[in-house]
Amino acid sequence: MAYFPAFLKFDDKSILIVGGGNIALEKLTHILNFSSNITLIAKDYLLQTKSLIDENNLKFFKRAYEKGDIKDFDIVIVAVDDFNLQESIYFETRNHNILCNCVDLQQYCDFIFPSYIKKGDLTVAISTSGSSPAFAKNFKQYLLKVIPEDVEDFLKELKSLRTIIPKGKERMQLFDKKVKDYINSWDKR
Ligand SMILES: C[C@@]1(CC(=O)O)c2cc3[nH]c(cc4nc(cc5[nH]c(cc(n2)[C@H]1CCC(=O)O)[C@@](C)(CC(=O)O)[C@@H]5CCC(=O)O)C(CC(=O)O)=C4CCC(=O)O)c(CCC(=O)O)c3CC(=O)O
Ligand SMILES: NC(=O)C1=CN([C@@H]2O[C@H](COP(=O)(O)OP(=O)(O)OC[C@H]3O[C@@H](n4cnc5c(N)ncnc54)[C@H](O)[C@@H]3O)[C@@H](O)[C@H]2O)C=CC1
What we know:
Bound molecules: ligand SHN, 1,4-dihydronicotinamide adenine dinucleotide
Shape: elongated
CATH superfamily of the largest domain: NAD(P)-binding Rossmann-like Domain
Number of strands: 7
Radius of gyration: 20 Å
Number of helices: 6
Number of domains: 2
Helix content: 25-40%
Distance between the termini: 40 Å
């Protein structure tokens, strides 16, 4: 079954990352763009992970995961190099109202991380449903070259016009044309 693409409200969720290595660092970097309510538990932390923790004043514990650690969290990301621990934390979360992501075992993921672009209010998320994360990453890099920097300002302008112009057919047509013209102009840049 395919994954349902949705944009989650993150700033009211408490997030636990188990692990402090390369992949925990990647997941942490991505999540920090949307929330700072993040706690980490790991036996060891990469220097770079520890710097991000300090810069963002995050709560962290330098120790092995213990059963029950998940219970106060809404979202748990298990970024450890231990498949048994990934599996057992996933099954622990089944007794709670917790969304779980295990970095190696897709069958134990309630959600998967997309590759994404964020420019102001524009977010483009790319997933291959786990078929090829490398494709998701490289396709993002391609799209980054296509989408112009000023898209952020263009969206601001549209947002403000939507508050001024009354709703209705005319407004729909006006916005449709304005956006078409803007996107068509990318080819000529
Ligand atoms: C299922 C998923 C679960 C999840 O992590 O949520 C998952 C799982 C696994 N990834 C693996 C490998 C790699 N992952 C990346 C990169 C990214 N992986 C991400 C997401 C996801 N990875 C989810 C599916 C996303 C989708 O496609 O829909 C991205 C998009 C987002 C992010 O990490 O935040 C981020 C790019 C971010 C960016 O730059 O934009 C690279 C490329 C690289 O690092 O250069 C490689 C090596 C090349 C390759 O394998 O393709 C392995 C095997 C590990 C091994 O071989 O040991 C597994 C486990 C398995 O498949 O068994
Ligand atoms: N989903 C994805 O995008 C990808 C997933 N992976 C997978 O991610 C996993 C992690 O990879 P890396 O971060 O590179 O490994 P790493 O060796 O850099 O980090 C592993 C981390 O897990 C922690 N850890 C291990 N056992 C623990 C325990 N019992 N309690 C608390 N912390 C514990 C270690 O202290 C360390 O911080 C690997 O199994 C790899 O196959 C790899 C590439 C991409």
